């Protein structure tokens, strides 16, 4: 079994919190519990507030040696020297982003419930394809639903590439329901609420990470 280009294991995705100190403390706890990569995702707030928070998160991730992916905004990722960017269907095309960021920057993309979209993005050279929502999601309650078969299909598609792009699953995932997703072939589980809204963030991260052992 080939190792994926993107870190295997728990992939934390930040909640939309304005309180940066609270967020940084939660990131440290998640990292202590075994989180392998972090996506900074914030939709609200002014550009200045968002940029300031992203910079603070970047500084922490550098100290923790934790790969940081920026959601949507590849220019911000470039400005911060982040490790990568995550793109959705309404964001810019893969090719110009890859050209702008270079070959060493991680690029992940949302593929929803569409293996054909995953196939296209894999040909464009992404580092991971993400399927979801796997379960009902409080963050995106109207999100399309993906199935374990989509994860399996995506995993088969990635096996044709070397080094192998990763398969990420997202949407309503937590320590109590992640096992079938991982067994279906997900290299990483992207977790928001079940991680950062947990009463004990470190323990939630530890429980998620243990599923990959």
Tell me about this structure.
This protein has an eight-stranded parallel β-barrel with strand order 1-2-3-4-5-6-7-8, surrounded by six helices. It has nine helices and eight strands. Helix 1 (20-32) runs parallel beside helix 2, helix 1 packs parallel to helix 9 (201-210) and helix 5 (115-123) runs parallel beside helix 6 (148-158). Helices cover 40% and strands 17% of the residues. The protein has 213 residues and is of the alpha/beta class.
Average pLDDT over all residues = 96
Radius of gyration: 16 Å
How far from one another are the termini?
15 Å
Share of helical residues: 25-40%
The total count of strands amounts to 8
Count up the helices: 9
- Lateral strand order in the biggest sheet: 1-2-3-4-5-6-7-8
As residue ranges, the low-confidence spans are none
Q: Report the major sheet.
A: 8 strands, parallel, barrel
Topology:
Blueprint: E1 9-13, H1 20-32, E2 37-40, H2 47-64, E3 68-71, H3 74-80, E4 84-87, H4 94-101, E5 106-112, H5 115-123, E6 128-131, H6 148-158, E7 166-170, H7 179-183, E8 188-191, H8 193-196, H9 201-210
Parallel strand pairs: 1-2, 1-8, 2-3, 3-4, 4-5, 5-6, 6-7, 7-8
Question: What are the main properties of this structure?
Answer:
9 helices; 213 residues; alpha/beta; single chain
In a nutshell, what does this entry contain?
This protein is α/β, with parallel strands linked by helices and 213 residues long. 40% of the residues lie in helices and 17% in strands.
